[in-house]
Amino acid sequence: MFEERKDRRRANQAFDRGEGVTRYRMRQKAISFGNDYWIDNEAGDHLYKVNGKVLRARRTYKIEDRYGQNVATVQSRPLRIKDSMAIEDADGRRVAVVKKALVSPLRDRWVIKPENGEELTVQGNIVDHEYAIERDGYKIAEVSKRWFRLRDTYGLDIGPTADPTTVLAAAVAIDAMTHDD
Fold first, then answer.
1. From which residue to which does the signal peptide run (predicted)?
2. How many angstroms separate the CA atoms of 59 and 54, rounded?
């Protein structure tokens, strides 16, 4: 038990130092019809476009690569007691569901339930884009605005054990459920 906790602490400190981490920047487009984002790499190159579809019964976000190919879809799930969104891969298969798990006065908790794999927990200040995504206490991704002064811009650090597409899509889903426009 003590060794496991020590190992987890060491792994999380390595993550915080940026070891094996891939950095992305999500930036909402200044002028757009819908809720559109660019997802850039550290060099500032556009890797993905998040296209928020408007005038639909369900909130829908298409994530496309730089060539316009659909990579993932994030879509609200109507008629649910708790707000939730499904993440589908390019072939339309559900890969995960993002749900709000618990509301407390200090921090929000969310859950990402992959179809295949272990449940991920999301904790932190969701509204201010300052939160971590963990699997069994190990940090696999972190979302933060601390490096950006621009409005509607935040960073994502994704560790080597996480699927980047699912984490990016989950960040889009959490943003959409938290900041209803």
1. none
2. 8
- How far is Cα of residue 18 from the mean position of the Cα atoms in its chain? 18
Q: List all residues 6 or more positions away from 136 whose beta carbon is below 8 Å from its beta carbon.
A: 118
List, for residues 21-50, the tens digit of each pLDDT value: 999 998 876 544 456 788 999 898 999 999
- Domain spanning 2-178, CATH architecture: Alpha-Beta Barrel (3.20)
The pairing of strands 153-158 and 138-144 is: antiparallel
pTM, two decimals, is: 0.86
Concatenate the DSSP letters of all residues of 71-118 into one string. EEEEEE-SS-SS-EEEEEETTS-EEEEEEEEEE-SS-EEEEEEESSS-
Compute the C-alpha angle 40/55/33, nearest 5°: 40
Over the range 103-142, which residues count as b (16 or more CB within 10 Å of their CB) and which as e?
Answer: eeeeebbbbbebeeeeebebebebeebebbbbbeeebbbb
